[in-house]
Amino acid sequence: MSIAFAQKFGVVLAVASSVVLFACDAAPAKAEWAKHVVHQGAQSLTAVAGDFTRDGVPDIIANAGEKTRLFVGPAWKEVVLDETKGHDFIHSEAFDVDGDGDLDYIAARYQPGLIVWLEQPANPLTEPWPLRIASKQLNGIHGLLRGDVDGDGRMDLIANSAQPVDTPFPESIIWLSVPAQARSGAAWKANVFANKDAPGLTHYMGFGDVNGDGKPDIATGAKGKPSPAGNYFAWWEAPANPAQPWKKHVIAEDQEGATNIHPGDANQDGRIDFIAARGHGRGVVWFEAPSWREHPIHASLKEPHCLAVQDMDGDGDVDAASCGYGDKEVWWFENRSKGTFINHLVARDQEAYDIRATDLDRDGDIDLLIAGRGSKNVAWYANPAK
Q: How far apart are CA 170 and CA 52, in angstroms?
């Protein structure tokens, strides 16, 4: 696999001659990260960062209290973009949907399933953001993920349809291609890659070339309860024609509360592993390729319902971060190379449903943005590294 391809699909590649495996739940005594509250007072399930005002400064869009709100950085002044009743979105993404060079916002409602996108206007602080429906065919949409699935140079949207009833795509996962004329209001084309073989209430997806064939694959976790078919992690292998059904590979079963999974070379042996979280159970783990042997990262973290996987400290290997809403703790997991993780406590008394790793204060290091469900807030935590 080429470095360019790995960078495109967010997969970290490296080569190492030996493997040392160790993980711990305790962290060295370090100061917690400084907390910055963006919004307080309404339940928030999703927040995403990006330059939504084209001034070079990161902004935040979050859904809180059935309102989609733009918080303009760095002071986080609030601008309400949508307050339609029933638009209680569970997850979101951001990319240039209409190809005009600016960042648009995409959001999903769980049930009844709905995906919408909000077009960034010429004057994003004073003009309305046109809202268009991307899809109403899916039901039980829990996760959204952007990625160029078909390799045409344009972003697609990956979404699940986890409910077994009231949908054309029961217990499936879909990738949606944006119409050539995105502003026409035409529905986005649904391409089913996990065709009725993703039961058990799937949650969030991971995206990257797992088997090194040059095509991006897709993974997910299924939480189970109340469905008896869940509690597993799996990945689907992309075929030559990505519009056709993909081949399912089970990574691990008996994973109570499985929710989040992302590909990455955790032990730097040149093969793609998976880092995963049991968001309706306990624990953050990684699965070692090719046998998918399980290794704990933070075995006891309760309900880590969100997961970010990327190089947090700039040392060239893949790290991770999560917030356990059961424990109300935020952690980041430092990969000390070759799959050895040291766990660092970021914050206490913070619930989450969503987490994003990005540089919000433009100081060159990675901060953490969290949408808090039970804590009813949107907050970000500043990395003290710089």
A: 34
- What single DSSP character describes residue 6? H
CB-facing half-sphere around the CA of 132: CA atoms within 13 A: 17
Query: Are the beta carbons of 330 and 381 closer than 8 angstroms?
Result: yes
**How many Å apart are CA 227 and CA 251, to the nearest integer?**
19
Greater model confidence, 272 or 14: 272
Secondary structure (DSSP) of 157-178: EEEEE--SSSSSSTTEEEEEEP
Assess whether pLDDT exceeds 90 at residue 29: no
Buried b (16+ CB within 10 A) or exposed e, 226-236: ebeebbbbbbb
Q: Is 302 helix (H, G, I), strand (E, B) or coil?
A: strand
Give the other-Cβ count within 10 Å of 30's Cβ: 10
242-249: average pLDDT = 92
Q: Is the pLDDT of residue 245 over 90?
A: no
Cα(39)–Cα(37) distance, integer angstroms: 6
Say which amino acid occupies 74: P
In the predicted model, what is the mean pLDDT of residues 33-56? 97
- Helix H or strand E encompassing 303: none
Q: Which token pair is 366?
A: 């990675």
pTM: 0.91
Per-residue burial over 322-341, b if 16 or more Cβ lie within 10 Å, else e, is bbbbbbbbbbbbbbeebbbb
Determine if residue 245 is left, alpha or beta; phi over 0 gives left, psi from -120 to 50 gives alpha, anything else beta. Answer: beta
Q: What is the pLDDT of residue 148?
A: 98
The bridge status of strand 22-23 relative to strand 340-348 is parallel
pLDDT of residue 30: 57
**What's the CA gap between 208 and 180, in Å, rounded?**
25
Residues belonging to the chain:
386
